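Exam revision sheet. Question 4 asks you to relate a sequence to its structure. Input first:
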Amino acid sequence: MSSASTSSASTSSASTSSAPPSGAPDLSDGLKLTSYFGERHRAGGAFAADALLDVYGRSHIAASILLRGTEGFGLRQHLRTDRSLTLSEDLPLVAVAVDTRPRIEALLEPTLRLNTSGLVTLERAVLLDGAVAPGDLPPGLGHSESAKLTVYLGRQERADRVPAFVAVCDLLYRRGIDGATALLGVDGTSRGTRQRARFFSRNAEVPMMVIAVGPGERIRQVIAELGALLRDPLLTLERVQVCKRDGHLLAWPEELPGLDEHGLARWQKLTVFTSEAAQAEGQPLHRAITWQLRAAGLSGVTTVRGIWGFHGDHRPHGDRLLSAARHVPAVTIAIEIPPAIARNTRIGKYSRSRVSIGSSCCRRLARCTRAVDDFGSRTHTLT
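Answer key, structure tokens:
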């Protein structure tokens, strides 16, 4: 999903909740807008990344984050990786924006206008703003077989006298969540305020995110503890299907027709959670998977490297001091039509490795010409 990908959009059903009473948590049917493009992509004389985050800043988006990818390819199959000086030009970028439905819908036109040669997806996510108890959640939310929880933080935010992302991962690990990955942003917005990383600055409020996947009921229960742990929590919750855990196949992604009820093509998102320490044929597993998906003809893949996290029974960790090998987590994302996702869920000869994969329904749009409405979204995750 580098700059060679075709502009697309994934749509899902969402609605805006009424304002909560004073002191009550804010639960909104939000939307998550994600853009994939190359770091050299330009729009209107400026880099697309800067222009996109300028739009998010002017719109005072609740949470947005710009992530630098480490490798990937787009529709033209041009591989970019930070392992090679020649191939490191135009590495992939991922920009994520989360807010209520009206605010995100207002971003669709400017986002597609700025990201003319990348990929854009739109997914439904419940936005949790403030401390939330399990009883505050809508009936059925978090009771699905599995769920995906995203926690939005600042780089220097602290909790229990340690960095907040460390405290969050430790709590999720103790509560039996399947896995979590902390991703460091370089730009974004935090509660409507632009926060950009700069040289010679602490960059305390520059956004980062922790993505966790686990049993729905455990995710539902840990949300209340996160509310007590963090000063001003901002979370999103999404339904997922765990398909694979610790190399063991649990279920195939749900079979979906090629077209939705409106006659538009469905797309799915495949997410693979691995580690830099996991090797396949002398190279990091995520790189081997990227190359295999490229050989399979997928239209685009992006990998983002985390800074901290855990998977299964391995305690939360990052890179080790004085160690030449990397031990941080990695997240690989692909967007494709459902049959292609189903074919590649096995990840071929690496199917026994410790990986986690997920997918969500998408619509491919040539232009943003209609409102987002009545299009459900599902995510399938292998851990």
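Marking note for examiners. The helical segments are 48-58, 101-105, 108-114, 164-174, 216-229, 285-295, 338-344.
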